[in-house]
């Protein structure tokens, strides 16, 4: 069988969410060297600032030096745009998610938040290649702004997209909806099936959220899945390493 890889991706990294992940990351480290892709939110919900938290910054510095990838994941993460005006808008912003920061803003605001995030990464000396929108949602204006900024890629649940071309590359995600009991039960089933269905894909992404860590069922499923994948011969990678090794994005970064 062709080589298969997986990327372990931790969503919503900020001082407020790190305690959810800390023990889990320690357990992952015990499985061997598994590089992690960290989705960093600069100022989570306007109240938890990653770039003002010396401890978290030092941790991310260390992880980066070990080969982990740091990715910009929105700026505030929450949707604080004006109230939804259309039924579709209401569905996307209140029912599907309340975290679609880059779905609720247009081109200019997206551009300014991206530039701000890039500057924070650059000040810290962190290479930057990827941008992932909160809840994977981009408005048309935000998407246009993103394409002009110099990022190598973005993603949604099914694909990575090289930028600025916006060329999709299949890379399915396993992801849980862990916020209620019935959603966790359904997620277990959906993800077990998805893992089998996607067994021929060269890259499988594991998209973890802080809430997954707070429930035994989801947390245990993620650890067991990591073990299964390693046993089945999957190699762990970061998203940017995988893209660069395949030669689909350049081997430089936008802060260099
Ligand atoms: Zn997120």
UniProtKB/TrEMBL annotation:
Record-linked Gene3D superfamilies: Glycoside hydrolase/deacetylase
SUPFAM superfamilies per UniProt: Glycoside hydrolase/deacetylase (SSF88713)
Any Pfam family the entry gives: DUF2334
Signal peptide: none
Alphabetized InterPro entries for the sequence: DUF2334 (IPR018763), Glyco_hydro/deAcase_b/a-brl (IPR011330)
Segments forming a coiled coil: none
Listed name of the protein: DUF2334 domain-containing protein
